């Protein structure tokens, strides 16, 4: 995980991220679950709360029996969606959709992992010895912009963001990035904002681990072209503190400053 540690240093030096970056690992068998290096949840917890705890340094693992939210269990592949959910009837009771047809349309477009797992593990990315499956970053809109810029630097435009303000952490930040092998952004949902207590300013980004390392490098390499002068000296000092090479950061070279000269 040397590359992951370098990537974490690059992205945290380039941005002011207050929470720890989270790695998510799918555990497909009981044996995998038992050897997974995290404590089992002591009580039923919603998946998004597990992610919240991981952003504060607490690693956990959970099975279906320890999962406290049906949205998370079906999105992650811990259990099959019920017929009541598939019909749209469950969503139609939420008061979020004007009729059953709209609720059914939303159900049809929610991404679920197309696998069956025994359990799931969430912990700070820096604590993994093996590669996780998905990386989740909880941050503000400015940092989200920069992360998208880093992704775009490496991979071009992500034209298929998917968000509906529902099943935010489990589907929008985990299942969809995993199934599509691409980055996604989530404005969160009312459920996770209540259960996990995110601040009003926070939003989530999920991406497959395989693209996190390159995205972090993209954030690092776009500092010169994207950041205002007031941020550049701070970033240069943070890079130095983390023993990272300055990628070429100069005053007045952000594209929007050069255009005005």
Features:
7 strands, alpha+beta, seven-stranded mixed sheet, globular, 261 residues, single chain
What is the topology?
Layout (H helix, E strand, L loop, with lengths): L1 H13 L7 E6 L2 H6 L3 E2 L6 H9 L4 E4 L6 H7 L6 H4 L2 H4 L7 H10 L9 E6 L9 E6 L1 H15 L12 H13 L3 E3 L3 H6 L7 E6 H13 L1 H4 L2 H13 L13 H4 L3
Parallel strand pairs: 2-3
Antiparallel strand pairs: 1-4, 1-5, 3-4, 5-7, 6-7
Helix pairs in contact: 1-11, 1-13, 4-9, 8-11
Q: What can you tell me about this protein's structure?
A:
The protein has helices at 2-14, 30-35, 47-55, 70-76, 83-86, 89-92, 100-109, 141-155, 168-180, 190-195, 209-221, 223-226, 229-241, 255-258; strands at residues 22-27, 39-40, 60-63, 119-124, 134-139, 184-186, 203-208. The protein is of the alpha+beta class. Strand 2, helix 3 and strand 3 form a beta-alpha-beta unit. The protein is globular and about 60 Å long. A 7-stranded mixed sheet has the order 2-3-4-1-5-7-6. The longest helix is centred in the middle third of the chain and has 15 residues, at 141-155. The chain is built from 14 helices and 7 strands. Helix 1 crosses helix 11 (209-221) and helix 1 (2-14) packs antiparallel against helix 13. The N and C termini lie far apart (43 Å).
Rg: 19 Å
Range of strand content: 5-15%
| N→C terminal distance | 43 Å
Structural class comes to: alpha+beta
The biggest sheet, with number of strands, parallel, antiparallel or mixed sense and barrel status, is: 7 strands, mixed
Helix percentage: 40-55%
- Using the alpha-carbon principal axes, give the shape: globular
Uncertain residue ranges: none
Q: N-to-C SSE series?
A: HEHEHEHHHHEEHHEHEHHHH
Output the strand order for the largest sheet: 2-3-4-1-5-7-6
Number of helices: 14
Mean pLDDT score: 96
Number of strands: 7
